[in-house]
Design goal:
Blueprint: E1 2-5, E2 11-18, E3 21-24, H1 30-33, E4 39-44, E5 55-58, E6 60-68, E7 71-78, H2 81-100
Antiparallel strand pairs: 1-2, 1-4, 2-3, 3-7, 4-5, 6-7
């Protein structure tokens, strides 16, 4: 079993894992994750097995969120530093263009 704590303190408990998909019976949507992935802590039950899915992560993104039957499946991944820097730079350029009244 897994639990995830988001940057705003919200928590999803009693998750199972299939590959890289977290599975829950609790209803979730993309909105569940919006604005909460800058810092994520994923905890695993202590079964003696190390798992790369567990730990504290910065700047994660939601890859997918789907409902299958009565279960909700979702995938999170940490944004690589290079991609995060490119996203930050693109956001800064968009902001400067907006402030200058320039259309890109």
């Amino acid at each position: 079993m897994y639990s995830i704590t988001f940057s705003d303190g919200a928590k999803l408990d009693n998750l199972t894992l299939n590959g890289n998909n977290f599975i829950t019976s609790q209803e979730i949507t993309e909105a569940t994750f919006r604005g909460k992935l800058s810092r994520v802590k994923i905890e695993c039950d202590d079964d003696g097995v190390m798992n790369e899915m567990c730990g504290e992560f910065n700047n994660m993104e939601l890859v997918q969120c789907k409902k299958y039957g009565s279960e909700y499946w979702f995938i999170l991944r940490e944004i690589p530093p290079e991609k995060f820097e490119m996203l930050r730079l693109a956001g800064n350029i968009d902001y400067v263009a907006m402030m200058a009244g320039v259309t890109l």
